[in-house]
Amino acid sequence: MKAFYILLFSIAILSCQKEKTSLPxxxxxxxxxxxxxxxxxxxxxxxxKNDTLISGKEGTKIxxxxxxxxxxxxxxxxxxxxxxxxxxxxxxxxxxxxxxxxELLESSGMFYINFKEGDKQLRIKKGKSxxxxxxxxxLADSNIYYNDxxxxxxxxxxxxxxxxLFPDILRxxxxxxxxxxxNAGGFFKETTLDSLKIAQKIDSLKLIKILEEEENELKENIxxxxxxxxxELNHDLKYDKYRDINNxxxxxxxxxxxxxxxxxxxxxxxxxxxxxxSDKLGWINIDRILDYEKLKKVTINNNDKLFDSxxxxxxxYLGQKSLINHYxxxxxxxxxxxxxxxxxxxxxxxxxxxxxKIFYDKFYIDRNSNTEFNLKLKETTLDKLxxxxxxx
Length: 392
Description:
The chain is an alpha+beta fold. The chain has helices at about 30-35, 85-90, 170-175, 195-225, 255-270, 380-390; strands at about 40-45, 50-55, 60-65, 75-85, 105-115, 120, 130-135, 145, 155, 165, 190, 230, 240-245, 275-280, 280-290, 295-300, 310-315, 320-330, 335-340, 345-355, 355-365, 370-375, 380. It has three domains: about 35-160 and about 270-290, Sandwich (Chondroitinase Ac, Chain A, domain 3); about 195-270, no CATH class; about 295-390, Immunoglobulin-like. Helix content is about 20%, strand content about 35%.
């Protein structure tokens, strides 16, 4: 597999300061960065004779066709997968959420997908793609981003659209089919993620019209003094009851609106099935662009110089799954981030190691905070550094 490197990100810094952008972490002095990583690699070996479905430990599903690869020679394939859906895993593994246009992203999940035949890298045949189904519900307005570099995580927007399967409430209602929160049973419809809310709204309006027609029919039956059975809103929510017309029972407007709201809440709580097709291997990110409040020039003065030491400057956007990592080589002067995107509160941690000791400092940035900070490095342990990185 490709070696997993510490996240690098190009930044503007003073001319007297150098930044590493290519050496793998094993060749650098920040050994603590590799110690922070969690082992996320999953491998499966198989011979591709038929169309095949592969499932990851965290729910990612990959569907490949038997003719997917252009250079496959019927040998044993090694499938490699890393899944990063929690913010903690993203932090500890040095991932970042910035595009190649310096846009700040918020992630719904990242993963690494690769196929090899022995030592040979497999290539996807032109015009072919594989399908990926993700286990969680992506954030609204999310897109697919790719990164073909293990050491510089700068994401590039893909043309691929995220597809969403969502419950067909009208058809399920017509056939009296219950759909559970695990999406077992029932009919579904497909749309793109950015059209999901519109499609659900259209279904809701159609359902309201059906309910109004049923209510008008009920009124006519009441006038005829007949016993009727009223189908109240949704069989899934168990609202079917017999109504005695002699007692003049019927749904009030307020009761109908309340039950429509309950029905909408029920279906909105269900996890839509989100998927996309890809013709690329490597790193994939499901992100949306995060609007920022302000741009700030941030300066960090390194007064406690540990010469010949490398540093990581880590930005944790609290409340969002948004992260930035900068890796600096021989950081013994001032560091400048010319245009940091501010969104809410950002926890900044600077850490390094000198010989066998770990040092760090932390501070917070928001739209009203200072723009210049003086480092006061303190000795810590690896476990305590982990807690600082993942906590608020």
